[in-house]
Amino acid sequence: MASRSTQILEAAARVIARRGVRGLRVEELAAEAGVSTALIYYHFKDRTGVLRQTLEFINDRAERYTTDRDPDAPPLTPREELDETLLLELQDTVEVRENSSAWGELRASAVFDEVLREDLARATLVWVQEVAALLGQVQPMATASALAAAAERLTALLEGLSMRWLSGGIRIGHARELMRGAIDAELAGLQRY
């Protein structure tokens, strides 16, 4: 992606996190990104294009901050990799707060927007499959359907915990503790399969 379009997507994530999808106006986005509205239309065609690309952008950014590791660090065990991947979605950084808020706003808007709903469903499916693969590395004897169900529960819980944390309903330490407990419970349940 060109640096201008990345700049626009970063601004879109900020605006969506702050004002929601319904509050995203191309003029405001242009001002936030420091570009003209014509440039936004050039790169993204229309508001729907901005939303679709922003969803992809926040997914890519989440992938980066949950998987990037120091190349000189010792390799993680499968369990450590699972824990880290999920728990890094609950860290008090501007990037994670913005990503999680924007994801929640996009999810809420998908209730009323069929195009966004389909894109979000695809993105969620990819995330669930990634978590199922990590669970399968920890519990290789579990069935594919059991792994998928466990991944679905964990990702749904993580979204809920993230929203509660971001909205001040719980503290981040408690959210992380609850997530660790859920991971333990799901892995224990997978031992039966």
TrEMBL record:
Q: Does the keyword Repressor apply?
A: yes
DNA-binding region positions on the chain: 25-44
Q: What is this protein called?
A: Helix-turn-helix domain-containing protein
What is the native source organism of this protein? Streptomyces racemochromogenes
PANTHER family from the entry? Answer: HTH-TYPE TRANSCRIPTIONAL REGULATOR BETI, HTH-TYPE TRANSCRIPTIONAL REGULATOR RUTR
Under Gene3D superfamilies, the record lists:
Tetracycline Repressor, domain 2
InterPro entries, alphabetically?
Answer: BetI_C, Homeodomain-like_sf, HTH-type_TetR-like_transc_reg, HTH_TetR, Tet_transcr_reg_TetR-rel_C_sf
Pfam families the record matches: TetR_C_6, TetR_N
Has the keyword DNA-binding been applied to this entry? yes
UniProt keywords, alphabetically:
DNA-binding, Repressor, Transcription, Transcription regulation
Where would I find the HTH tetR-type domain in this sequence?
A: 2-62
